[in-house]
Design goal:
Number of strands: 2
Structural class: mainly alpha
Order of helices and strands: HHHHHHHHHHHHHEEH
C-alpha cells in the first residue's frame, strides 16, 4: 500500500515538474517580439510577427488578466515576475499556485495513508513554492547583474574615451556582455530607439533591476545629461566603488557560509525526520494526532505541528538575519 502510494506521488511530482518547465520555458512575449523587430542599427525587420505567437495565452488566461488588470496586487506580481525574468503573466502565475496545491494535496493524501490532514498540510505548503522560486530567481539574477556591473562600466568608460556617444556605448554593452546585463541594456536601447526618453528608459531599468549600485549609475547618467561634465571620469569612479563593494560582499559571503548552511540543516532536519518516521512507522506518529478530536480534527496534534513549524521558521529567520551583513 505504502509503495503504491509513493509511486503515485512520484508520478504526480514528475508530471508537475514537467508542466512547470513547459510553462517557464515558453517563448518570448508579444511585447518582446515587437521590440525584437529592431536590429542593432535601429532598422525595422520586414518579417512580420507570426500570428500563432499572438495566441500564446489561452482565453481563460486572457479573461483573468483583464479581470485583475489595474489592481494593486496584479501590478506588484507583474513587477516581481519581470524582476525574475520569468515569461509568465499574472494569471498563469496564480494558476501555478492552484496547480501545485492540488498536486501536493493529492501526493500528501496518498503518501500519508489517505489522511486529509497530511493532504491539507502538503497543499498549504505548496502555495509557498512559487513565491520561494520567484524570490530565488530574483536574488540570483540580481547577484549576477551586480557582479557584471563593474565590467559594464569599464566597457562604457572605454567606449566614451574612444569617442563613442552614450547611446553607442550602451549598445556595445548589449552586444559584448553576457546576460542578464546585456538583455537589460539591450532593452533600454530598444526603448530609446522606439522614442522613449533616456530618463524614462533608465527608470524602467531600475524598476526591473532593484540594485543600489545601478541607481548610482543611472543617477550619474541623468545628472550628466542635464548639467554636462565628464561622464567617463564619473563612471570610472563609480566602477571602482562597485568593484570594491563586490569584493567585500564576496569575502562576507565566504565568512558567513557556515552559518547559512547551519540554518538550513537545523531547519530541515526535524521536518525530514518527521516525514521519514511517518513513512516507516505510521502508528508511532499517529499517536501525536490522538484525542481530543474537535470537528473531526486532532486539535492537539495540529497545534503541536503548527507550533513546531512556527518555531523552526522563526529560528531560521533569526539566523539568516544575523548572517545578512549589509555592505
Amino acid at each position: 500500500m505504502i509503495s503504491g502510494a509513493i509511486l503515485v506521488g512520484v508520478v504526480l511530482m514528475n508530471l508537475l515538474i514537467i508542466g512547470a518547465f513547459a510553462v517557464l520555458e515558453r517563448r518570448r512575449t508579444v511585447v518582446e517580439e515587437r521590440l525584437g523587430q529592431i536590429t542593432q542599427a535601429g532598422q525595422l525587420v520586414s518579417t512580420p510577427i507570426d500570428e500563432d505567437q499572438r495566441r500564446q495565452s489561452t482565453n481563460l488566461s486572457t479573461a483573468l488578466n483583464r479581470a485583475i488588470a489595474g489592481r494593486g496586487f496584479a501590478d506588484r506580481i507583474q513587477r516581481e515576475l519581470a524582476r525574475a525574468d520569468l515569461k509568465l503573466n499574472v494569471a498563469e502565475y496564480l494558476a501555478l499556485h492552484i496547480l501545485l496545491a492540488f498536486a501536493f494535496f493529492a501526493a500528501g493524501w496518498l503518501i500519508g495513508g489517505r489522511s486529509i490532514f497530511m493532504g491539507l498540510l502538503a497543499g498549504i505548503g505548496a502555495l509557498f513554492v512559487p513565491r520561494m522560486y520567484l524570490g530565488y530567481q530574483q536574488r540570483k539574477r540580481l547577484r549576477n547583474f551586480d557582479n557584471q556591473l563593474g565590467d559594464m562600466l569599464n566597457l562604457v568608460v572605454n567606449g566614451l574615451r574612444a569617442g563613442y556617444s552614450p547611446m553607442q556605448a550602451l549598445e556595445s554593452v548589449g552586444r559584448e556582455l553576457p546576460p542578464p546585463i546585456s538583455v537589460e541594456f539591450h532593452r533600454v536601447v530598444q526603448e530609446i530607439q522606439l522614442g522613449l526618453p533616456q530618463e524614462a528608459a533608465l527608470a524602467n531599468l531600475t524598476r526591473r533591476v532593484p540594485s543600489a549600485d545601478l541607481d548610482f549609475v543611472v543617477t550619474a547618467m541623468n545628472v550628466q545629461r542635464e548639467v554636462g561634465g565628464n561622464l567617463a571620469e564619473i563612471l570610472d569612479n563609480i566602477s571602482y566603488t562597485i568593484r570594491e563593494r563586490v569584493r567585500i560582499k564576496g569575502e562576507i559571503a565566504t565568512l558567513t557560509a557556515q552559518g547559512q548552511i547551519t540554518a538550513w540543516v537545523i531547519s530541515l532536519l526535524p521536518i525530514g525526520l518527521g516525514l521519514f518516521l511517518w513513512i516507516i512507522n505510521r502508528s508511532y506518529m499517529n499517536s501525536i494526532f490522538g484525542p481530543p478530536i474537535v470537528f473531526g480534527l486532532p486539535i492537539c496534534g495540529i497545534a503541536m505541528v503548527v507550533t513546531a513549524l512556527i518555531m523552526i521558521a522563526t529560528g531560521f529567520a533569526i539566523v539568516q538575519k544575523i548572517v545578512d551583513i549589509e555592505v
